[in-house]
Amino acid sequence: MAQDTTVPKLNFEYWLDKAIEWGQATTLESQKDVCLHLPQLQEFLHQLYETIKHLQSSTVAIQQFPLIGQLLGRLCWNPFVIGYDEIQRTLMWCLCFLYSSEPQNAVELKANSWIQSLLCHLLSSSKWESNEAETSTFISALGYTSADYYCHLVKNLVVSLVTELRENQSNGLNSQESISASRVNAMSIFCVPLITLPDLTPLVETLLLYHGGSSKEILSSEFLGAVNDAFLKKKISLPEPAIFSLWLRHLTSLEKATLHLLDQLFSVQMNSLEEVARVIKDSLLPQAASHPAIFRIINEIFKNALMETDGTSEVVTIIQVFTQLFLQAHQNENKQHKFPLKAYFPNHHQPLVRSLAKRPFELPAASWSHHVKHVSDMVKALVEDTNISSLTDLFEIWYLVACFGEWVDIAAEQLLKAAVEPDAVLWLLAFYCCPKTENQQRTQTMVEAQAVCSQIMMLFSCADLSLKDLEAVHRGTGVELCCNQHLTTTHLLTNFLLFSPGAHKIAQECIYHISITEITDTSKEIHNLLIRTAYRFNHSGEENQRTLKLLNALLQKLPLKV
Question: Can you spell out the DSSP letters for 316-365?
Fold first, then answer.
């Protein structure tokens, strides 16, 4: 949990002065003074780490504490300091945070090299080398500098551990020389403070992909959480199988990664879904969701996000893009490893799942109207089933339709092009916009939408349209519309402006007028419908350049008004 605690400047300067005064504690006086202050120093370093780890980056940490490098460097070379309790590990954690995963200049490169040598020194000084002084002559005789020697030591150690793990995995779990679960756990704990050290990456990857014979998780939860945090902050690069294994082994990390993705997407200005899709892909979650267990957990988090935001159109759009990217990853899976759709949607009507999961570009455009009617008929049969009695059941059906919402958008287009049976599409739109209403209320919504649709169709072939013509349509039949009925009408009207050639010239004026005069939810729905349509056109190969040009023009002006 983020803390607002800051380390007082006076306290920081006090410990820096002490570190300078102690040096490497070569005199009896300095050694006694170090020992006297060790508990307070440990508390200070822990407080320092808790402060910097919640800062945005190592650059911010250095700006807040310009002398942090000098302090840590001096403490690392004091054998009395690093030999006390948890101080050595805390120093490692601080240094790892200051390590730049993507150095931008020569200063950061030099700082990384310095940090790496300190980490190697800490790693070897108390665990593998009993006395630094005893080895210095040997190191010099080999022709190494101390930093080079420790760097090679770490690399050789990592290679040795990776080889041990891989050989054990290949020999099978029944081997007499099988590695104990406690040893593997110890390896993972050893990695925690050094997660971002590049030389350690092969060991981190091998541990994540290692599976012993124990039914319980053998890797430290601290290690799994640290790897996930480093991955989310882009401080470590690991192959996809290792990340997928991490999320399968540690569901807390998967939940954190999903919430991190949602936080990222909420900060993206949704003028285009291309950027949304890029962020989602970079998260690796759609690819990982090819495993049903991962998909179902992500899906539950999305459901909760949708309910907590009261069904906001931005969240619905994010879920739809994620679902499309998941389907793409699923289709790219090797047939031998591909799970059936039922594994991802086990509690849903499977014919409906299969129909919704078909991407528009997989079907000839001429058959879209038939497909939409088929979907609508199945959804209606499920909703009106006497066994469907609770709002939870209705929500589950609606949520499934919302995940594959591009078919709802296509349904409205097909209706305005007179390519589909009106009642089927109007019912689907009414349910999509008003899932909580009773059948009688939904019928009333359909009546209102039918009236609006009839008025729109009368204008569809008109070459000379004005804003007043469409204002009359938007006002409907004079009957007071509820918010959701209004969304149904807006959905139809927006599609009319996009797909009626005669309406193109007043589309900008009309949508601008609606977006500034209607309630916020309506404006957002218009905006999200536009970006979804533009995204579909860009990725489906539909040859409708005129409409795409209009969409891009609308999106350039609308965001500031939404």
Answer: HHHHHHHHHHHHHHHHHS-TTTPPPGGGTSTTS-HHHHHHHHS-GGGS-G
The set of residues, in sequence order, having a beta carbon less than 8 Å from that of 322 and lying 6+ positions away, is 280, 285, 286, 298, 302
Q: Looking at the predicted structure, is the pLDDT value of residue 104 above 70?
A: yes
Whole-structure pTM value: 0.78
Per-residue exposure over 118-147, b if at least 16 CB sit within 10 Å of its own CB, e if not: bbbbbbbbeeebeebeebeeebeeeeeebe
What are 218-239's pLDDT values in tens digits?
A: 999 989 999 999 999 998 999 9
What is d(CA 203, CA 555) in angstroms, rounded to the nearest whole number?
Answer: 48
Q: Residue 124 has what pLDDT?
A: 67
Phi, psi of 542 (to 5 degrees): -65, 130
Contact status, residue 427 vs residue 443, Cβ threshold 8 Å: no
What does the pLDDT read at residue 237?
Answer: 92
Place of tokens 């309790």: 85
Residue type for position 377? D
Q: Between residues 107 and 379, which one has the greater pLDDT?
A: 379
pLDDT at 140 over 60: no
3-state secondary structure of 381: helix
DSSP letter assigned to residue 178: P
CA 431, 435, 440: angle at the middle one, nearest 5? 70
**pLDDT of 169-224, one tens digit each?**
776 655 445 678 888 888 888 788 778 888 889 999 999 999 877 778 999 998 99
Higher pLDDT, residue 248 or 177: 248
d(CA 149, CA 294): 43
Contacts 24+ apart (CB under 8 A), 28-32: 31/80
Tell me, what's the pLDDT at 71? 95
- CA angle 460/472/429 to nearest 5° reads 65
Measured from the Cβ of residue 277, the count of other Cβ atoms closer than 10 Å reads 18
C-beta atoms surrounding 203 within 10 Å:
23
Q: Please name which of 203, 192, 220 lies closest in space to residue 86, comparing C-alpha atoms.
A: 192
> What tokens does 423 get?
């009642």
Distance of CA 341 to the CA centre of its chain: 23
Using an 8 Å Cβ cutoff, are 527 and 400 in contact? no
Other C-beta atoms within 10 Å of 422: how many? Answer: 16
Q: Tell me the average pLDDT across 297-326.
A: 93
Nearest CA among 476, 503, 478 for reference residue 416: 503
Give the whole-angstrom CA distance, residue 250 versus residue 258.
13
211-225, 364-378, 484-498, 521-535: the lowest-pLDDT one: 484-498
Tokens of 464: 């000379």
Pull the structure tokens for residue 547.
């409409």
Q: Which two tokens stand for residue 167?
A: 């050989």
The structure tokens listed for 334 are: 């090797």
Angle between helices 483-499 and 545-557 (to 10 degrees): 130
Type of residue at 187: M
Which two structure tokens, joined as six digits, stand for 248?
A: 């399968």
How far, CA to CA in Å, does 430 sit from each of 275, 350, 399, 441?
A: 30, 23, 14, 10
